Amino acid sequence: DTAVSQTPKYLVTQMGNDKSIKCEQNLGHDTMYWYKQDSKKFLKIMFSYNNKELIINETVPNRFSPKSPDKAHLNLHINSLELGDSAVYFCASSWDSGNTIYFGEGSWLTVV
Amino acid sequence: DAKTTQPPSMDCAEGRAANLPCNHSTISGNEYVYWYRQIHSQGPQYIIHGLKNNETNEMASLIITEDRKSSTLILPHATLRDTAVYYCIVRVLTSGSRLTFGEGTQLTVNP
Question: How far apart are CA B33 and CA B73, in angstroms?
């Protein structure tokens, strides 16, 4: 019974396309995150939502737009995909943003 | 959040204890020490955290020095499945705080 689940796990798409990655958590947490891990393996936070409110928004191109329909879901929409967007995207959640953060298994995005 | 320093890689024999060091000499009084690991092709996995006392759970033990400037994560009986990148992170537990990952230590457990 996966606590933080992401779909799709793998996504290959062409430059210029628009795609979405979905995330759901069944832990009852009120804070959710998106992290990006690039080819050099550095993990960096992109966004954080607490109770559907955006609380962290790092310097990310505005082609990336998170959407939180409710506390259990945080989806990531990416418009006009570029080659440099190829990475692994991790969703995560926690009870309040000051507590232990739990991660999903990642979504491998490849832009060709 | 304070910066941490970890060795880039370590090796350990299967069945032996793995001791992973972390320096955080600029840690503040309200910053916790967190350890995560990332097994190849998986998401980061929470291991343990502490403020100043030593902590133990089913996965590992965390030893924090009295001055809190360094800590050691101990895997008491390492297995091949413990091969992963281990991240030591310091952070305050307040609203809006974040996990800032460094480069971590690649631990390889050898048979």
Answer: 10
For B65, list phi and psi in degrees, rounded to 5: -65, 160
pLDDT digits (tens, 9 = 90+) for B51-86: 998 999 999 999 999 999 999 999 999 999 999 999
Tell me which residue has tokens 């939180």: A68
DSSP notation for A73-91: EEEEEE-S--GGG-EEEEE
* Structure-token pair, residue B40: 């190849």
Helix (H, G, I), strand (E, B) or coil at B81: helix
Å between B84 CA and nearest CA of chain A: 13
Residue with tokens 């304070």: B2
A56:B93 CB<8 A: no
Query: What string of DSSP letters covers B44-78?
Result: -EEEEEESSS-EE-SS-EEEE-TTSSEEEEEETT-
Query: Measured between beta carbons, which residues in chain B are less than 8 angstroms from residue A48?
Result: 96, 98
